[in-house]
Amino acid sequence: MSGVVERRSIDVVPDEERYGTAFSQFTLWLGANLQITAVVTGALAVVFGVSALWALIGLLMGNLLGGAVMALHSAQGPRLGLPQMISSRAQFGVRGAVVPLLLVIVMYIGFFASGTVLAGQAVGELTHLGDTAGIVLFALITGVAAAIGYRVVHALGRIAGLVCALTFVYLGIRLLQRADLGTLLDDHSFSLPMFLLAISLSASW
């Protein structure tokens, strides 16, 4: 069991215990992002008034910008063997790192809360347990996976990535069959503040 439960947490991971690959990072983040919270976040651009065409462009630009920053962090991680928030002390200092740390705590609480509510409601609907029981059940499963740690999280990421990718392919096909994409994309109205909002939504994600 000691080889399964997370032991390092924020400690330095010795070289002999590092076995992650670029593909394992891909499946982890694919599974983490191909889910209902990401769909809702992306849809907010249109909800707030961005035309579908400019929303797609803004979301794509935001993903590229946000991904570039994360790519730099991912290159830094293997060299230092430390989690991102700990290694940020090199840029901000020990005391200065408190500011991004607090922001990340707020962000992750919001991410966990929104994801748990949406996914928990889906679990409650599928199991007929109701929203509250579904949310509690999903939160418990998530908490156990996080406590056990790295290996379980990556295993779940591989499973979730495959399942969610197949689901999104199916939903994409259904969307093409049922939606009038020509009409949606024909609206070329542009608003700079709303366009920047679309970029920030995906970049911060």
TrEMBL record:
<feature type="transmembrane region" description="Helical">
    <location>
        <begin position="53"/>
        <end position="72"/>
    </location>
</feature>
<feature type="transmembrane region" description="Helical">
    <location>
        <begin position="159"/>
        <end position="176"/>
    </location>
</feature>
<protein>
    <recommendedName>
        <fullName>Cytosine permease</fullName>
    </recommendedName>
</protein>
<keyword id="KW-0813">Transport</keyword>
<feature type="transmembrane region" description="Helical">
    <location>
        <begin position="133"/>
        <end position="152"/>
    </location>
</feature>
<keyword id="KW-0812">Transmembrane</keyword>
<dbReference type="GO" id="GO:0005886">
    <property type="term" value="C:plasma membrane"/>
</dbReference>
<comment type="similarity">
    <text>Belongs to the purine-cytosine permease (2.A.39) family.</text>
</comment>
<feature type="transmembrane region" description="Helical">
    <location>
        <begin position="92"/>
        <end position="113"/>
    </location>
</feature>
<dbReference type="GO" id="GO:0022857">
    <property type="term" value="F:transmembrane transporter activity"/>
</dbReference>
<dbReference type="InterPro" id="IPR001248">
    <property type="entry name" value="Pur-cyt_permease"/>
</dbReference>
<keyword id="KW-1133">Transmembrane helix</keyword>
<keyword id="KW-0472">Membrane</keyword>
<dbReference type="InterPro" id="IPR026030">
    <property type="entry name" value="Pur-cyt_permease_Fcy2/21/22"/>
</dbReference>
<feature type="transmembrane region" description="Helical">
    <location>
        <begin position="26"/>
        <end position="47"/>
    </location>
</feature>
<dbReference type="Pfam" id="PF02133">
    <property type="entry name" value="Transp_cyt_pur"/>
</dbReference>
